[in-house]
Write a structure and sequence with these properties.
With 175 residues, the protein is mainly α. Helices cover 57% and strands 5% of the residues. The chain is elongated and about 65 Å long.
Length: 175
């Protein structure tokens, strides 16, 4: 551990050798002791897939109508008790899936969700409907709020795609 810390403090110092068996054993010992963050762990490495973020976006958007934001719970939950979907495990699963790929996929995923939210808000405003956000937008914003929380991402990553006033307002307009 000291060799790894020294390497990260001074990159000119060598990183421990790959054939060091202690590195692999240390990882499993730390996991058994509960020292680690499973949400930040990369389980597999893959080649770069060009449309993976689009696929993930379409999957998430297809499942979000089964969920609703409940202000008293502070998260999204299933609309119907018979639906086998719950918000936090769905968000963590999406995060874990995106974590296995290049971070650019997560950025593209957030950009696609941001574009979708902006288009829904714009169509609502152009239609002359009430100033309240549609339930679908509230659900997506709640998804993004929890996603940023679980991923330990800065909120500015989402705010670069969705205006901050929309992102702030969704909790006040929710049920």
């Amino acid at each position: 551990m000291t060799d790894v810390e020294v390497h990260y403090q001074d990159p000119t110092r060598p990183y421990p050798k790959e054939d060091n068996p202690l590195m692999y054993e240390l990882s499993s010992y730390l996991e058994c002791a509960g020292i680690g963050n499973p949400l930040a762990k990369i389980y597999i490495t893959t080649k770069r897939l060009p449309y993976f973020s689009l696929f993930t976006f379409l999957f998430v958007v297809s499942q979000l109508p089964k969920l609703q934001y409940v202000k008293t719970v502070g998260s999204i939950i299933g609309k119907l008790p018979k639906d086998p979907i719950d918000g936090p495990p769905f968000i963590v699963g999406t995060l874990s899936l995106l974590k296995q790929f290049h971070s650019e996929n997560t950025d593209q995923f957030l950009a696609l969700l941001g574009q979708y939210v902006r288009s829904l808000v714009e169509s609502t405003a152009a239609g002359g409907r009430s100033s309240e956000l549609p339930q679908e937008v509230v659900c997506i914003l709640a998804f993004l709020d929890d996603f940023v929380h679980y991923a330990s991402l800065p909120r500015q990553m989402v705010e670069s795609h969705i205006p901050a006033y929309i992102f702030d307002e969704f909790k006040s307009n929710a049920q």
